[in-house]
């Protein structure tokens, strides 16, 4: 793949360098091509409100790729699931940059997943698969339940709800990492009981600045200590109506 760039990539290069993320021409090509596919599809489908290239770099690419700062094992042969991936964040940028890891992207909206499969095919991403379905259903399926070393999510939900969507996928000894806003204290306090019930334990919260910007992000790291009880996740829709 070779792209004649119409963009200033200095911000992207500098951001990746600041984060310590290794890259080559092919990976940069794929990131740019992914951006163009999102923007084109965004004309007919609501994928993102962020359309300017510089903003996309900061709020989608670099934001997704801060993960290596807290989880260096991402650059190894591990299994990762991205729950509520939406337009493919953080899963697609992670899959592009970390070719040794194997990624599963899960989203409830079929048309978004169809788009992601177009991206996967166009960019020849052999280390990622995308599926349409509810986390509550997939989390009960033995093919996915407690099968992953790492679960990541940028989905917007309270921690107690998000935990029921994510922790059932993580094997004992694995980790869940939630991309959260900087205002987190009350939410974490309210989510501790749910995390414990589901077999998790908060490891730490790490605040990371997005390089070259005024933006920052909290990463909530949760260790999977025990099996998730068989009754969780509850059937589709119940966690949102009656969060733990």
Low-confidence stretches: none
Estimate nothing, just give the exact number of structural domains.
1
Rg for CA atoms: 17 Å
Q: Specify the biggest β-sheet.
A: 7 strands, mixed
Approximate helicity band: 25-40%
Q: Determine the mean pLDDT.
A: 95
Q: Report the sheet-strand fraction.
A: 15-25%
> Helices and strands, in N-to-C order?
HHHEHEHEHEHEHEEH
Instruction: Look at the structure and give the CATH class.
Output: Alpha Beta
The N- to C-terminal Cα distance equals 47 Å
Helix count from the secondary structure assignment: 9
Per DSSP E runs of 2 or more residues, the count of β-strands stands at: 7
Question: What would your notes on this structure say?
Answer:
With 244 residues, this protein is α/β, with parallel strands linked by helices. It has a single domain, classed as 3-Layer(aba) Sandwich (Rossmann fold). The chain is 36% helix and 21% strand. Helix 3 packs across helix 4. It is globular and about 50 Å long.
Summary keywords:
alpha/beta, single chain, 9 helices, Rossmann fold, 244 residues, seven-stranded mixed beta sheet
Quick structural gist:
Helices cover 36% and strands 21% of the residues. It is an alpha/beta fold and 244 residues long. It has a single domain (10-241), classed as 3-Layer(aba) Sandwich (Rossmann fold).
Topology, pairings included?
Elements: H1 10-19, H2 25-41, H3 53-65, E1 79-83, H4 91-97, E2 102-107, H5 110-122, E3 128-132, H6 135-138, E4 148-153, H7 159-166, E5 170-180, H8 185-197, E6 200-209, E7 216-224, H9 238-241
Parallel strand pairs: 1-2, 1-4, 2-3, 4-5
Antiparallel strand pairs: 5-7, 6-7
Helix pairs in contact: 1-3, 2-4, 3-4, 7-8
